[in-house]
Amino acid sequence: MSAPVFFHVQHLLGIGHLQRVLHIAEALAREGIAATIVTGGPPVAGLPIPPGLKIIQLPPVRARDARFELVDEAGQPLGDALKTARRRALLAAFAETRPGLVVIEGFPFARRAFRFELDPLIAAARQAGARIACSVRDVIQRRDDPARHREIIARVRDEFAAVLVHGDPCFIPFDASFSAAEAIADRLVYTGYVAPPAGPAGGAAASAGEVLV
């Protein structure tokens, strides 16, 4: 049996990132690959969890609003105690899982505010010999900052085996929003768009004459 896959995902406003990771983990389970998801956003009630998937909830952090100011459950700025608790729980989960692959959602292209826990996770993964991948959507927030681009490129080349781009380069290539993508072209892996398995053809939705835009 393949070594487990360990996901770190942090949703801040919506739950799209978490939903995507759940679909990926469900696909892995169908191939006989166990997955552990460590989630750091607010708990989501009623979210369907695929069988056999392990979910570990860190002390939750969310964005106060679209400016992405980070706050805890009580709406207060993040304190050292919360950061320490999250970091310890994350590293304990990694040690217990002993994964062959660690998939970090967004970082280093995003989620820089979580370096207090992601840097130690990356260090632990490298020490244990686990491969590290970044999971990122095809369109990221554009930043025309050469220094920031150099930092991202250096981290990807030094620490990440792959950048999993959830999209299709024939539709939207990654360099449309990350202009320095050519410097990490050998790390980019386009996965296609992540979605639930297709239902049976010819169902009610297909015959309703609806158009999705």
Descriptive notes:
- By secondary structure, the chain is an alpha/beta fold.
- Helices cover 31% and strands 18% of the residues.
- It has five helices and nine strands.
- The chain has a seven-stranded parallel β-sheet with strand order 3-2-1-6-7-8-9, sandwiched between helices.
Write the layout of secondary structure elements.
Elements (H helix, E strand, L loop, with lengths): L4 E5 L6 H15 L4 E5 L14 E4 L4 E2 L6 E2 L8 H18 L3 E5 L9 H14 L2 E7 L8 H14 L2 E5 L21 E3 L13 H4 L6
Parallel strand pairs: 1-2, 1-6, 2-3, 6-7, 7-8, 8-9
Antiparallel strand pairs: 4-5
> What is the total tally of β strands?
9
Q: Based on CA inertia axes, which overall geometry fits?
A: globular
State the strand order across the main sheet. 3-2-1-6-7-8-9
Poorly predicted residue ranges: none
Query: What's the pLDDT, averaged over the residues?
Result: 90
User: What is the strand content?
Assistant: 15-25%
- By DSSP (H or I, 4+ residues per run), the number of helices equals 5
Largest sheet: 7 strands, parallel
Q: What is the CA-atom radius of gyration, in angstroms?
A: 18 Å
Reading the helices and strands in chain order gives EHEEEEHEHEHEEH
